[in-house]
TrEMBL record:
Its EC number is 2.3.1.39. It comes from freshwater metagenome. GO terms for biological process: fatty acid biosynthetic process. Belongs to the FabD family. Residues 14-293 form the Malonyl-CoA:ACP transacylase (MAT) domain. This is [acyl-carrier-protein] S-malonyltransferase. The keyword Repressor does not apply. Keywords: Acyltransferase, Transferase. SUPFAM superfamilies: FabD/lysophospholipase-like, Probable ACP-binding domain of malonyl-CoA ACP transacylase. One of its GO terms (molecular function) is [acyl-carrier-protein] S-malonyltransferase activity. SMART domains: PKS_AT. It catalyses: holo-[ACP] + malonyl-CoA = malonyl-[ACP] + CoA. The keyword Disulfide bond does not apply. GO terms for cellular component: cytosol.
C-alpha cells in the first residue's frame, strides 16, 4: 500500500510554462541527483532533452515542441530534488504547459504519461501554427474599457489573465500587428509581442485538438489528496478523469491564472516555484496585494 505524503498546507507549488525556457537553463541542475529524470524522459520520448537544456542554441530551444518537453522535464528535476529534502505542498498550480507538470508532481499522472502528453501537445501545437500562423502579445495598463475594445480587431482573443493590468492575447499575425499599431488609442499603455510559436489558448489551436484528445483518452488520471488548481476555471480539483476535459479545454481557452490565485486559501503563505520559472511567484504576490485581501498575507517565496 502506497502512503500519501504529509502535505504542507502553507505552500503552493508553482510550475511555469514554456516561456521561461532560455539556452543553458539546465546547467545549474546537471550535477543534481534528480538529473536522472532527464535521462528517463529522454529515453521515453526519444528526444535529447539534456541537449535542449544544456547546449542547444536559442532557435532550437524555443521551438514549441522542444520548449514544452524541456520545460516539463526540468521542472520535474526541480520537483524531485525538492521532495528529497522537504515535505510536499498541499496545493499545486501550473501555468499553461505547467499544468501538466503540476499534475505529475501531485501524482494525478505519472511522469512518463505526462511526458507523452506534453510531447504530443507540443508537436500538435507546432503543426497548428503551421496551418494557421499566429502569435501572442502582452498588454499592460488597460482597464475594462480597453479589454472591451479588443473585440474591434478580428482574429484576436484573450489568452491569459495573469493579474490586474497584465493580460495576454493571442491572434493571427495581422491581428497582433494591428493591435501594436492601435494599442495606445485603445487604452493600453504598452503592447509587447511575445516570442512564441503560435497563438496559444485560442481557436487557432483547434487543429491540434484531435491529436491531444487522442492521447488524453489513453491517459490514466489518478485521484489525489492534493489540491490542483485548473487553468480554465481557476477552481480546485483533486485528480481523476475530470482532468481529461480540463486539459483538452485548456488548449483553446484562456488561462485564468488570476482567478486561481484568488481562490487560494488564506493558509497558503509561501510559494515554491519550479525551474526554469522565476515569474509566477511575483505574479501571485501582486495579485494578492492589489486585491487587498486583508485576511491573506502576500505569498513569500520559499526557495
Amino acid at each position: 500500500m502506497t502512503m500519501s505524503p504529509v502535505r504542507d498546507n502553507h505552500v503552493v507549488a508553482l510550475f511555469p510554462g514554456q516561456g521561461s525556457l532560455v539556452p543553458g537553463v539546465g546547467r545549474p541542475w546537471a550535477s543534481d541527483k534528480s538529473w536522472n529524470v532527464i535521462h528517463e524522459l529522454s529515453e521515453v520520448t526519444n528526444v535529447d532533452i539534456a541537449h535542449l537544456l544544456l547546449t542547444a542554441e536559442h532557435d532550437e530551444v524555443v521551438q514549441t515542441d522542444n520548449a514544452q518537453i524541456a520545460t516539463y522535464a526540468l521542472s520535474l528535476v526541480g520537483w524531485d530534488s525538492y521532495q528529497r529534502r522537504m515535505s510536499s505542498p498541499a496545493v499545486f498550480l501550473g501555468h499553461s504547459l505547467g499544468e501538466f507538470t503540476a499534475l505529475a508532481a501531485a501524482g494525478v499522472i505519472d511522469y512518463v504519461s505526462g511526458a507523452k502528453l506534453v510531447q504530443a501537445r507540443g508537436r500538435a501545437m507546432k503543426h497548428a501554427n503551421d496551418v494557421a500562423p499566429g502569435t501572442m502579445a502582452a498588454l499592460m495598463g488597460g482597464d475594462d474599457g480597453a479589454i472591451a475594445r479588443l473585440g474591434e480587431i478580428d482574429d484576436l482573443w484573450l489568452a491569459n489573465f495573469n493579474g490586474e493590468g497584465q493580460t495576454v492575447v493571442s491572434g493571427s499575425l495581422d491581428a497582433i500587428t494591428e493591435l501594436e499599431r492601435r494599442g495606445k488609442e485603445m487604452g493600453w499603455r504598452r503592447v509587447t509581442r511575445l516570442k512564441v510559436g503560435g497563438a496559444f489558448h485560442s481557436p487557432l489551436m483547434r487543429p491540434a485538438q484531435t491529436e491531444l484528445d487522442n492521447v488524453l483518452a489513453t491517459t490514466t488520471f489518478h485521484p489525489t489528496d492534493a489540491s490542483v488548481l485548473a487553468n480554465v476555471d481557476g477552481s480546485t480539483h483533486n485528480g481523476g478523469d475530470v482532468w481529461r476535459t480540463l486539459l483538452s479545454r485548456q488548449l483553446t481557452e484562456p488561462v485564468q491564472f488570476m482567478s486561481a490565485v484568488l481562490s487560494l486559501s488564506s493558509d497558503v503563505t509561501h510559494s515554491l516555484e519550479m525551474p526554469p520559472g522565476a515569474i509566477l511567484t511575483g505574479l501571485t504576490k501582486r495579485i494578492r496585494i492589489f486585491r487587498e485581501q486583508s485576511c491573506v498575507e502576500p505569498i513569500e517565496e520559499q526557495l
